[in-house]
Amino acid sequence: MCKMEKITLRNITKAYGKNPPVIENLNLGIEEGSFTVLLGPSGCGKSTVLRMIAGLEKTTAGDVLIDGISVRDVEPGDRNIAMVFQNYALYPTMSVRDNIEFGLKNMKVGKDERNARIAEVAEMVGLTEYLSRKPANLSGGQRQRVALARAIVKKPAVFLMDEPLSNLDAKLRTQIRTDLIELHQRLKTTFVYVTHDQVEAMSMGTDIVLMDQGTIQQHAAPAEIYASPANVFTARFIGSPPMNVVPAEAAHGKAPEFVSKVGFRPERSHIVRPGEKLSEDTVLIDGNMLAREMLGDQTQYKMETENGTVFVKEFKDDLIDYGQHQIAVKLADIACFDMQGKLCGFGLQKE
Amino acid sequence: MTSALKKSPASVKPVKVIRTVLRWVLNIIIALIFFIPFYWMFITSVKTLGQTLMMPPTFLVSEPQWQNYPEVFTKVDIWGELKNSLIVTAGTLVCQCITVIPAAYAFARYDFKGSKVLFGITLATMMIPAQLIFLPVYLMFSKWGMINTYWSLILPSASSAFAIFMLRQTFKQVSEELLEAARLDKAGEFKIIWKIMLPLARPTVVTLAMLTFISVWNDYFWPLVMTTKETVRTLPVGIASLQMTESGINYNIMMAGNVILVIPVLVVFFFAQKQIIKAFTYTGVK
Ligand SMILES: Nc1ncnc2c1ncn2[C@@H]1O[C@H](COP(=O)(O)OP(=O)(O)O)[C@@H](O)[C@H]1O
Ligand SMILES: [Mg+2]
User: Fold this and answer.
1) pTM, whole model, 2 decimals?
2) Does ipTM surpass 0.95 in this model?
3) Residue A23's beta-bridge partner residues?
């Protein structure tokens, strides 16, 4: 990688008060111009990382570098960043226009320049008609747009966003998701985006940083994180539904000694039809169908096997009835994980 | 077809009617309890001296004695005292803004060393009655030559523990995210207070200012203790001096003075009432 790192976290440790640290010795480089998504379950420390980058939270140990320079003594307002909060954090007593203008005024941007920028950004996010309204008189989606506009107008070098879509309904969420991708393409600045939703991460990110309990599990592009999950945690987090991971015994001794768990993606398996011819390199698993979800172009089956429940996802038109079935998985699609849960590779040997 | 959709009057429940009537009766009684003293003050102020002493008292006056009002002006220096009252009240309000707002903000938003103890001490001062400390304060002021100055009237209430407490509670309700957003917008503490906190706390601020205004405007005790000359004497002391006539108390003149005294309070209340109601019904600043 010869690209510049916009933000570097060096040996970061963070403890709140006298509690045990929530983040210990974390190292992370965020590339200039990337759309980096911090992904992980609730409470894993994503917001904490983001807030340390913003300067809203002090690091207990370690350094945050922006453009290679430590920002330890730089105030949040001087870090050339903008943040979009989960609850928007709009100033309730100010109009939309004043909300957008507040930061510019504090940055001592001249009046003509301010007006030009506000007009431009309002046009961009479609708020032109609402500039004189108070936030209380706006819908959730519009408030979200004000929060975005307030960030964009400052022309920051980095956008920080902490679950900005979680208060919106599903339809609006997918819409603004696309808008954000577009925005990133247009501005080409660095985005750091926090979410617990892997679909959001996969769809928007150019880089995904998957975290669990304050540690980074994997830092890779979406395609890579999907194709070769670094460990069981990653495999079980990415994908909808995520990878089926079962004990190695389920492979009936076909797995090598050092493999402790095996897994396969639901979309890389199918349910065997009557009279279907199966190739040599396929394993079969017996299962009882618990639930069936038809989603239009795809169907999800929840199957109970002797090694736990697994999901099967098919892109076929014919629905399969409830009852006892066999699940077919290609050997090459089976992921093997070692004792530490690390991925050792794909493909089982047929004996 | 619209007539079919209309509710027939017969569907109004009698229980509901009784309840509504009772509520109104109660409201009217409460309103009267508050209104009657004002009415009594006013009606007395336009009586003749003879009428004020009549038994049983009269509640109506056929020939209002408006000349009672000009008479007040001849007996005491109303204009001068009005000016003094305004200076003292405005001075107190300004001082309280300067002391209360930053203190409330600090107590609400910062967890500095000793903040809890300091806040406790601040609250404890509310329990000390003025009568307990007036003597030491008087001695102190007289030593500094401050008796008969505006400062002797302003400084004793230049801050208010009650106001600090109330404003702190309001400031505490503002979400942390909002302040963080402001910090990221490069706003300093002063700007945060001025542009974000105070506008949000407006109903509380107006109400507190109103309470301070009333208590300082009506205060009789401190001005009485701290002034010996007419130069800085405030309106309540002046009005009270109307009592001291050789020919017994002229109740009508005194009440006319009182009307003059309360008019500014009523005017201020009229303009502030919307905010005051908001302050007492508002439960959250989002
Ligand atoms: N202000 C705080 N004081 C104490 N503990 C906190 C504070 N903020 C967060 N934490 C703890 O730090 C951990 C990580 O929190 P956070 O970064 O908000 O997680 P996430 O954003 O991934 O859900 C959680 O266990 C949380 O309880
Ligand atoms: Mg969070």
Assistant:
1) 0.84
2) no
3) A14
